Amino acid sequence: MRTLAVVLLIAGTLIVEGCVDGTPIRAERARRVVRLVRTVETSMSVPLAEEYARTMPDVDLQFVDGGGTGGTISAIQRGDADVAFVLADVAYFANADAQRRRDSRAEVRGIAALQAAPVHLVARRSIEPSQVAQLRPPHLGANSAFMSQSVLARLVLDAYGVKEGEQLPMFTSLDLAPALKDGTVVAVFVTANYPARSVAAAAEVGARLLPIDDAVAERLRRKYPFVHRVSIPAHTYVGQDASVRTIGVDRLLVCRSDLDDALVHELTRHFIEALPEIFRPLRSSARLLDLDSASATPIPLHPGAAQYYRERELAP
Fold first, then answer.
1. Low-confidence stretches of the chain (pLDDT beneath 70)
2. CA 229, CA 313: separation in Å to the nearest integer?
3. Pairing with 309, which of 166, 224, 264, 274 sits 20 to 30 Å away (CA)?
4. Rounded CA gap, 208 and 206, in Å?
5. CA-angle at 168, arms to 38 and 249, nearest 5°
6. DSSP 3-state of 272
7. Strands 227-232, 208-210: parallel, antiparallel or unpaired by DSSP?
8. What is the pLDDT of residues 275-290, one digit of tens each?
9. So what's the pLDDT on residue 284?
10. How far apart are alpha carbons 125 and 113 in whole angstroms?
11. Do 113 and 296 form a contact (C-beta atoms < 8 A)?
């Protein structure tokens, strides 16, 4: 099932001056385009776009369709997109695959590391945590972001007894709540910053969050270094009276490796400086960004971003 995405086009014009027979001339070189992808579950891209437009007067904005989380990283590798929010493990393995293929153009570079995007285990209210291990597809599902984390998804599904080769149905933010309400599916893994739109809609029709067991989480953390133990605070969703313990993987802001250094430096600077304004209206896990760790991406930083962090003395 397709996830709606948006691509932001940012254009900067370079003016070239000279003269012919003593007559001054001015010529414009073709505008550069930076394309920023967002999925419907990610609430950061629109306020980031608004801040770029406010702080970079030469920015033009256009919106077009793109792919889901797995498609986002592929779009950057193909050169169809330039900047995106992606999960750290997805970016890391995409880079590793590009290096294995010796395709340097397909490598991605880091701009900033954000806080972990939690895995929500959302289920019909009648389902207890101990029952999830007895569920099998099609009664157990996932969103595309969770399935794009192929290694983590496999480890999580193994922990819950789902055999390799069993295909989980995938749900978008629009069809998850109806499917839980009518019993088409009874539990779904959703990777997203909270509050996730799909989970919020599911909670409105009576679904609830289930914790991921401590023993399961610890085994996953030992096997998969991208995993962190995180909590979704109480009252994030309707009917959620207590915090829920789960796991999460860091989200990154990444870009194409061949983007201009000066441009990426400015994109990084404006992103970091705009964080208070971007996150001010959001009650989101994305607000928990630690500036001291912003440069600690598991993939190489883009040289333009690295220069910014050195100037700010934020580089490791």
1. 1-34, 38-43, 59-70, 279-290, 315-316
2. 28
3. 224
4. 7
5. 45
6. helix
7. unpaired
8. 877 766 555 555 456 6
9. 55
10. 35
11. yes
Task: Using DSSP, state whether 313 is helix, strand or coil.
Answer: coil
Over the stretch 111-162, which tens digit does the pLDDT of each residue have? 999 888 899 999 999 999 999 999 999 999 999 889 988 899 999 999 999 9
**Cα–Cα distance measured from residue 304 to residue 264, given in angstroms and rounded to the nearest whole number:** 5
Cα–Cα distance for residue pair 222/55, rounded to 1 Å: 43
Phi-psi region of 231 (alpha: psi -120 to 50; beta: other; left: phi over 0): beta
Question: In this predicted structure, what is the pLDDT of residue 155?
Answer: 94
Q: Which stretches of the chain are DSSP H helices?
A: 45-55, 69-78, 88-100, 144-148, 150-159, 176-182, 197-204, 214-223, 261-279, 303-312
Domains and CATH numbers, the chain: 5-116+251-312 (3.40.190.10), 117-249 (3.40.190.10)
Instruction: Give the separation between CA 154 and CA 185, rounded to whole angstroms.
Output: 19
